[in-house]
Amino acid sequence: MEQYIVSARKYRPATFSSVVGQDALTSTLKNAIATGRLAHAYLFCGSRGVGKTSCARIFAKTINCTNRTPDGEACNECDSCRAFNSGASMNIVELDAASNNGVDDMRQLIDQVQVPPTQAKYRVFIIDEVHMLSAAAFNAFLKTLEEPPRFVVFILATTEKHKIIPTILSRCQIYDFNRITVSDMVSHLGRVAAAEGITAEPAALNVIARQADGAMRDALSIFDQVAASSRGNITYQSTIENLNVLDSAYYVRLVDAFTAQDIPAALTVFHEIRRKGFDSHFFINGLGAHLRDLMMASNPATLQLLDLPDDVRQTLAQQASKLKPEFLYDAMGICNETDLNYRTSSNKQLLVELALIRIAQLLNPSPRKSGQGEGSLKPIQPAPAKATAAPAPSSAAPTGIAQTSSPSPASPMAQEPAQTYRPAQPQHPVTNAADPGAVPPPRRKEATVLRVGVTGNDTGRPQRPAPASAATMTRTPAELTVEMVRQAWTEFANSLPAAQNVLKSELLKLTPEKVNDRWTVVSDNTVVATMLTQSADLIAAGVRQRLSCPDFNYELEIHEGELPPRYWSQQRVLEHLLEKDSFRDFYNKMKLSLI
Ligand SMILES: [Zn+2]
Fold this sequence. Notes:
This protein is an alpha/beta fold. The chain has helices at residues 7-10, 23-34, 52-64, 79-85, 103-113, 135-146, 166-169, 182-196, 202-212, 216-230, 236-242, 248-259, 263-275, 280-297, 300-303, 310-320, 325-342, 348-360, 429-433, 482-495, 501-509, 526-534, 536-547, 570-580, 583-589; strands spanning 41-45, 92-96, 123-128, 152-158, 173-176, 199-200, 233-234, 450-452, 513-515, 518-523, 554-558.
C-alpha cells in the first residue's frame, strides 16, 4: 500500500515559482542569487503558514545548485539538489529557536558555523521562531551574525518581527511575507485537487481557504480533512458540513429580514443556526463580519478589497445596494457591543436575540430620534367631549376611545406613533364594566414620566348632567374622598375573576392618591404600567360603578424614569430580568416564545 503523505508536505513548494502568493519576494530572491549579491543574513517575517521555511529551504538549495535553470531556479538534478531533496544535505542546518533558545544551544550553533560546506559553496543556517531566543542567546549570537565565515548564510524566520531586537534587525536583510489571499489559495488548492484526481467546487475551496485564514499549510490540512470524507468529490455542502462552517446564506437571509423589519424571521434564522449546533458568540461575530463585508461591498472602490470570489462579491454588492450606510454602521455597532457583553452576560441567548431585534428596528423611524418625549413630563390633552353629545344611552357599545391617530398595529413589534391613551368616558358605565372585551388595543408611550387616563370634565367645562338611566349614580368627582376611591379601587380589584389574578394583584399593590384635584395612581414599573394601560377602560368603569360616579377619572403615572421596554438597552433588559425574574413577561410582551 502506498504511503499516505499529507498534502502540506506532498505539495510543499520545491521551487521559487511554486511558492504561493509571494511573487514579488521570490523574484527578488531569485535576482539576488542570479546576480551573486547574497547577504550573509536574512530575516523572513510573516504569519504562520505563509511559506517562510519553504522559501528558506528553496533559497538554500538554489544557491548551492551547480546547474541553475535560466529563470534562476534550482535544477533538482545535480548532486547538491538531490542531496537537498532527499533531506541528506549537510549544507543546511535548521534550528527551532522555540525549543533551543538558551545560550548553550547558541554556542553549539556557533561551533557548527565554523565547519565548511561539503561539495557545495554555502552552508545555510535556518533559525525558526528566532524571536524565542533568550536575551543571552541573542547576545552570544550577535558577533557571529555580524561576521560569519564567508560560506555561511543565516536565514532567520519569525512570526513576530516586533520582538526582534534592533541589533539583530540592523544586521539582516528583511523580507516581509504576505498573508496568502483567498484567491491565491483557491487556485493552489484547485491545482492540488487536480493533481490528486479530486473534483472540487470553487465555492468549497473558497470555504476552505477562508477557514485557513491566510496560512497555506492550514488550507492544505483542511483540504485533506474534507477530501478524506468526500470520496473524490468536494462539494460546497459537504465542506460546510464537514468543517461545521456556517453557510453565509443564513446571513444573507438575516439581513433580508432586517431590511423587511421582520423580527420573527430574524429570530427564526438565529434559532435554525443554534439548532445546527453553532455557538451564539460565533454567530454574532459572523454576523458582524457579514455586515462589514456588506459595508465594503456598498462602494465599488472598497468592493475590490474584499478577498472573495466574483460571484460572492456580486451577491454582496446587490444586497448592500438596498442598505443605507447608517444602517450598516449601527448594526455593526450593535454586533460589536454584543460581542463585548457576551462573556459577562448571564443570558447569552437573550443578549443575541435582543441584538437582532435592535438591528431589525434600526430601519424604523423611531420616535426616539424625534427628540420628543424623553426626560420630561408629557402634557396630556383633554379628551374631546364627544361622549356628552348624546345624553341618553344608545345601543352602541360604549367603547369610544379618545384616540386620534393611526390604525392598530398588526403586531406589537410594529412601529407605533407616540400617543396618549385615555380610557373612554362612558355613557353607560355599568354596560362598560360588563363588557371588558371591548377594551381597545393599548397605546405605548415614549415619555419617561407618563400620565394616562385624563378625560373630560376637568377642563373647565360645566359638568354635564348624569345620564337619566343612571339615576343612582349621582356623585360628582368633587364629592369623592380618598377613602371612598381607595375602597372602590380595592373592591374592584377583588371582584376580578381568577383569570385576571395578575391584574388583581398588581391593582392591590397600588393606592390612588389625590394630587391637585386629580386622582393619580403611580407605578414605578413599566411592565405593570403597560398592563394597567391595556385594562384602563375596564378599571375605570369598575371603579366608577362602585363609586356611583360616572365622571371619575384617574391618571396613571409611570415613574420609572426611563423608556418603555421596547426601547430598553440590552443592559437594562438584563438588569430588569435579573431583578424581577420575569423573563416570561418580557417574552410575552415581545411576542416571543422561550425556546
Ligand atoms: Zn541543482
